[in-house]
């Protein structure tokens, strides 16, 4: 156990934000981790008393560590992030301070890609809406459910052909879909057609799948102009971050019927979801569950702990977004 006296020598772990319960338990039991209080007053007192003890933070993509928290942790060496997305952590501030940042890539790629494909199918084929139709007793009364849109052989555009984007493309290729993509630059090793802008990509597809990392570099990348280019026969699927899409523009396009439908796992201000979408059967709404399987979350937890252990033992991270500055 860390005491005030030896705090400067002993590595002390801080949990920032809620974590998977088993991970939080392990941090408490095996690392004697402290937990950053939620309330502003308690947090201030905690940081004044313990900020200098902290050498590693464990957080999730939903919370992260901003520049002001980093400043209150002068001996911080690493931010260990549960999740592949780390847009809630200020990586520039971390870099300036020599603080390493890790995430959990690869282990969630399959589940997130599965979710994207599930959303494509559900949104185009209205399975969730049809299920509601049956449960409400409408089948027997109103007859067959209206016809929907075929997924196989459709044209799919992927924004962000990284690990997850490629896994989505691979799956939908097996459905006979024609795949095109937009990235900051064209990939030399991709079999898919490159579009030089999101608008150009949207113009040529039936379904636009957002798989780009969140953060300032992609904020509002899918704006009203992109949605107009996708058009009233087009569908938007987002399994990335709500920030990549202009949510107000999306909602008005859906409400006005200027978009055929949307499948959304992520939102601009989670867990808030625009209520006007609740009444639309051409929209599928998920509570940010893309990686949420027992297997994948266990693998994410294990990789999070591997990063933490490696940092505490060697000062290096296993899956770094950036490594800590050496010889701290
Ligand atoms: C997690 C995610 O739910 O990995 C990510 O970036 O969005 C999800 O897999 C989230 O990070 C957990 O906080």
UniProtKB/TrEMBL annotation:
Superkingdom: Bacteria
Residue ranges occupied by any D-isomer specific 2-hydroxyacid dehydrogenase catalytic domain in the UniProt entry: 52-321
Enzyme class: oxidoreductase
InterPro entries from the UniProt entry: D-isomer_2-hydroxyacid_DH, D-isomer_2_OHA_DH_cat_dom, D-isomer_DH_CS1, D-isomer_DH_NAD-bd, NAD(P)-bd_dom_sf
Key words, A-Z: NAD, NADP, Oxidoreductase
Sequence similarity: Belongs to the D-isomer specific 2-hydroxyacid dehydrogenase family.
Protein name as it appears in the record: D-3-phosphoglycerate dehydrogenase
Species per Swiss-Prot/TrEMBL record: Mycolicibacterium hippocampi
């Amino acid at each position: 156990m860390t005491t005030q006296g030896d705090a400067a020598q002993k590595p002390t772990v801080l949990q920032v934000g809620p974590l998977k319960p088993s991970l939080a338990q392990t941090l408490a039991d095996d690392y004697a981790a402290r937990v950053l209080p939620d309330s502003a007053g308690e947090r201030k007192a905690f940081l004044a008393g313990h900020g200098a003890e902290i050498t590693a933070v464990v957080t999730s993509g939903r919370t992260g560590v901003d520049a002001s928290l980093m400043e209150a942790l002068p001996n911080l060496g690493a931010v260990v992030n549960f999740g592949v997305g780390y847009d809630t952590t200020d990586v520039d501030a971390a870099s300036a301070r020599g603080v390493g940042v890790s995430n959990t890539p690869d282990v969630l790629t399959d589940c997130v890609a599965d979710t994207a494909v599930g959303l494509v199918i559900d949104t185009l084929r209205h399975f969730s809406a049809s299920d509601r139709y049956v449960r409400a007793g409408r089948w027997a009364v109103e007859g067959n459910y209206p016809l929907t849109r075929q997924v196989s052989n459709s044209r799919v555009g992927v924004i962000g052909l990284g690990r997850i984007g490629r896994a989505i493309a691979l799956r939908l290729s097996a459905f006979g879909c024609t795949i095109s993509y937009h990235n900051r630059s064209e990939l030399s090793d991709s079999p898919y057609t490159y579009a030089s802008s999101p608008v150009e990509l949207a113009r040529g597809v039936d379904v636009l799948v957002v798989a780009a990392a969140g953060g300032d570099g992609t904020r509002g990348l899918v704006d009203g102009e992109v949605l107009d280019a996708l058009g009233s026969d087009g569908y938007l699927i987002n399994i990335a971050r709500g920030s990549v899409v202009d949510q107000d523009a999306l909602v008005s396009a859906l409400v006005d019927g200027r978009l055929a439908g949307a499948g959304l796992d992520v939102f601009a201000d989670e867990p808030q979801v625009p209520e006007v979408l609740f009444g639309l059967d051409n929209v599928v709404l998920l509570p940010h569950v893309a990686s949420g399987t027992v297997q994948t979350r266990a693998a994410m937890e294990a990789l999070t702990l591997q990063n933490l252990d490696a940092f505490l033992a060697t000062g290096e991270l296993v899956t770094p977004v950036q490594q800590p500055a050496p010889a701290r």
